[in-house]
């Protein structure tokens, strides 16, 4: 699984690699075909439960799919920023700082 691809591209690739149609995957996930199409086109965000169901369907680690989805959210929110890479580095430092302080409480 290539994490540089969008979540939607990843799902589409998994579906086509497994020779499944939108309808077949949507039926298995108990969602509308149009909703799955929107997810594959990155026009709709999946729920945590849907990510879990997709991971089960394609035998993929749920954490990997969650990372793919959340990284899309972060990337799209700062994509147009000139300092995007620097922002990500500082955000990582802040997360480490917050987690460290949280553990010490």
TrEMBL record:
Pfam annotation, one family: HTH_3
Transmembrane segments annotated in the record for this chain: none
MF-aspect GO terms: DNA binding
Domain of life: Bacteria
Residue intervals of the HTH cro/C1-type domain: 11-65
InterPro entries for this protein: Cro/C1-type_HTH, Lambda_DNA-bd_dom_sf
Protein name: Helix-turn-helix protein
